[in-house]
Amino acid sequence: MDLDLGQNVLSGPLPAEIGQLSKMQYLSLGINNLTGPVPPELGNLNKLISLSFSSNNFNGTLPTQLGMLTYLQQLYIDSSGVSGPIPQELANLKALQILWASDNGFTGMLPEFFGTLTELKDLRLQGTSLEGPIPRSFGALTKLENLRIGDLSKEDSTLDFLENQTSLSILSLRNCQVSGEIPERIGTFAKLQYLDLSFNKLTGQIPSSFQKFSLLQNLYLGNNSLSGDLPSNIISPKLIALDVSFNPISGNLPPNFAKVGFSMNVLGTSINANSLLDRKAIGMLQCLQNECTNQVQASSFSIKCGGMEQTSSSGIKFDNDSESLGAASLYTNSNDQWAVSNTGNFISNPNGPQYIVTTETQITNTLDSELYKTARISPSSLRYYGLGLENGKYNVELHFAEITMDDSQSWKGLGRRLFDIYIQGERVVQDFNIQKEAGGSKRALIKTFEANVTNTIIEIHFFWAGKGTCCIPFQSTYGPLVSAVHVYQASNAGFSAKRDKKRVGKLVGIAVGSAAGFLIMSSIFYLWWINDKSGHMQVHTDSPRKG
């Protein structure tokens, strides 16, 4: 009746004879190395209440026979390897309460019939190849407590389906091509604790009803086209992170922006923060306006991501980047040469809100093992900026070592970290897997790219697009990881003086610190865009495995 084979290293195909276990109610095969097609004989287990085969290496489509499991309440198939259209027969699963299906190769449109599965409480569909729009039929899913959809392509979606989902505590629709305005009624969803609508095409103003949230802790609205003034009381009582970056929002910072434990990112907005200009902020502002007090513009910078200052075996000094960042933060180093911006929250992380990881294990394939023993991580979006650079052609050296996931022979070696890398707004690597390219964990890897600097600034963006496992070896193990950054000017020969095709202009900024012994960074970089930025939109949170 109950068979749990999860967290092993079972390999080979799942035998068809599994379908003879006719009394089975709970079957867990998650976190293994099973291959081949998912056997249609699973459809014979018509007493199943819970089925998990997540985090495997199956191939092919989901068998239509799964639609025969009419008593099924929980279906965990995230990172299982399946692909193709989601079978219409799953519409028969009327008792289904939990469906985790992220990080699979699903194709076709997001199924309309999901809206008929009215018992659903938890639905997660991120990092697939599904197409929008989000069907209006989803409005019938009034029992939803956790909805995470991400990375939809093609047709735009709207938020019209969000009508009576007042039980929602987590709502993430990141990178779903969502357009139109944010409905005021979302501010009446009193149980919301986490709201992520970032990397979309939203317009209009931030609803005034958002000032009434009583339980909301994380609010992510970055990378949209929201306008108007930032509501003055947007920082509700329990809010600890607010991201409105890269929106043409104006107005003033909220009066309580500096409260202890709160982080805020207003990078790329035109919010007025003149009242906050202290001496350090003025220096950074001048630098970002290409008026650095340094007499000579920089031609290189090096960062020890997540760690203390170090000098490499080749004599390169990597700057200290050990500052503790929040879930919506920006930090600028002491000489205003570079800045780092982080947004996102690791939901369900048993280790708490950590954005730096460390290891004591020796790193191989390098003479600079210490350089790779710390790294910055992000659940969503991690950006590094080089400031006040001479214009010209640059080499961008990115240093990596997978120090969180291992490559042991146990189930803990079955995790996969995937993320994208953008330089100057252009994606240079998609679905980057450090462990695979380096030939294992705890092995150093350097990737080098070329970039043109035309406005004294370079941007390096590490971006999670919903891919990879979420929870091996523990919950919330996913997203970008980087050990060090080294950028230096190459030969000027052949440098194109043409301005960056994606974005030009100047960035203007201030950094805001709080009291209480540690720095909570908030920043404004005003950024004028002259071309469409739609090519640089992707990502979301996670799709954890069964308990």
Summarize the structure.
By secondary structure, the chain is mainly β.
List its salient traits.
disordered C terminus, 547 residues, six-stranded mixed sheet, single chain, mainly beta, 38 strands, globular, twelve-stranded parallel sheet
Blueprint of the fold:
Blueprint: E1 2-4, E2 11-13, E3 26-28, E4 33-37, E5 50-52, E6 57-59, E7 74-76, E8 83-85, E9 98-100, E10 105-107, E11 122-125, E12 131-132, E13 146-149, E14 153-154, E15 170-172, E16 179-181, E17 194-196, E18 201-203, E19 218-220, E20 241-243, E21 263-265, H1 279-288, E22 300-305, E23 310-311, E24 317-321, E25 328-332, E26 338-343, E27 356-358, E28 374-377, E29 381-386, E30 392-400, E31 419-423, E32 426-432, H2 434-438, E33 445-453, E34 458-463, E35 481-482, E36 484-489, E37 511-512, E38 522-523
Parallel strand pairs: 1-3, 2-4, 3-5, 4-6, 5-7, 7-9, 8-10, 9-11, 11-13, 12-14, 13-15, 15-17, 16-18, 17-19, 19-20, 20-21, 22-24
Antiparallel strand pairs: 22-36, 23-24, 25-26, 26-29, 27-28, 28-35, 29-34, 30-33, 30-36, 31-32, 31-34, 37-38
Q: What would you say this structure looks like, in words?
A:
This protein is mainly beta. Helices cover 3% and strands 27% of the residues. It is globular, with a radius of gyration of 24 Å. The protein starts with a strand and ends in a 24-residue tail after the last strand. The relative contact order is 0.12. The C terminus is likely disordered.
